[in-house]
């Protein structure tokens, strides 16, 4: 799957020209070199895509669930048959190591397999009332779904929303991030090749204008957004005009509590995985290690050694860690490192660009971090770990919960009962015990507080794309 020099929008089952000649040039974040040009879509392009999705909706929703399941499995088959090409495409476009890109591609296929298995199990219920009166409920698709996808896991998160939307009987208009649009365009083509009817899946590339047009469009029936809190708030505000239901998966500032009896080797390994995977560009990253004072110094020493073991490199070369995806985020990460130093935290390692061209930042560890520092409160979205000491359980829980986010958290302890007790007190949608990034496509995922609304993944995700209708019937003569 070669990277084309120029791409088009995907509307109504085919590649089409945008309404203007303006384009966006995507770059390889490891080198800064141009990869491809994609259209800078406009509100008019969103109108065309939504119209195509609206026209396709009646036929798609009327298909038997078993047929939608068969098409879902064929999409998964297409993804698996093109797995190596998709992974290499994603690695170059996003910057992540090739192994991680392969994992994302496998997850994308798994989403379609998983939800295909649920297609013919979407059921209503009967509610007996009195005499011969009954109420029956049915679960129906909303219609047109709008999907706004971020740049950190482009293919995987596109599939995460698209698979349950399609299986539930909705059509889709996808707006990928401007820096990573290529995998969504290729996925749309694979959907067409798998037998998805024209207009059911549409992709409009571009920046703010098409995203804002999609989130405020009166013909969009349900919205899914993954990204930052400020943008999520803007999406929610736009959707409110038409009372459009929204699912939001937003930021995180996720605590990893290391209790004094933890296996330090395991804790260091998993927290490093949690913060340095995808160069820390993960909403659920383990970006706050909250470590008991009795093991604090040893933990810091070991996590610094681990951080310094990550070789940086170009994603297709499959290094330990790749670059930051784009110039804006690169500057943001470096700015937060400067903030941490100015706040008085101790920079133990990293904190500087890599030796190569591109947007590389070395794995970074701060110790002596006060919980009120900005680097301990605000999402950095980069390979920056803050290590915070605690003296007792209550203090650990207080530090963990004293942020505006509540996406994920973790606990490390040899005493599973103790670990679960602490896990129950962390305000977050997902808690990992003696691991990080636990769960799978079957596991519901979403946040509390400012980390979002609703759940992705698992059967719960179908609730975002289905509405319940009650039919009350009197059977008496």
Automatic annotation (TrEMBL):
Keywords: Oxidoreductase. This is Aldehyde dehydrogenase. Belongs to the aldehyde dehydrogenase family. The lineage of its organism: Archaea, Methanobacteriati, Methanobacteriota, Stenosarchaea group, Halobacteria. The keyword Lyase does not apply. InterPro entries: Ald_DH/histidinol_DH, Ald_DH_C, Ald_DH_CS_CYS, Ald_DH_CS_GLU, Ald_DH_N, Aldehyde_DH_dom. GO terms for molecular function: oxidoreductase activity, acting on the aldehyde or oxo group of donors, NAD or NADP as acceptor. It comes from Natronobacterium lacisalsi AJ5. The active site is at residue 249. PROSITE patterns: ALDEHYDE_DEHYDR_CYS (PS00070), ALDEHYDE_DEHYDR_GLU (PS00687). Gene3D superfamilies: Aldehyde Dehydrogenase, Chain A, domain 1, Aldehyde Dehydrogenase, Chain A, domain 2. Homotetramer. Residues 19-470 form the Aldehyde dehydrogenase domain.
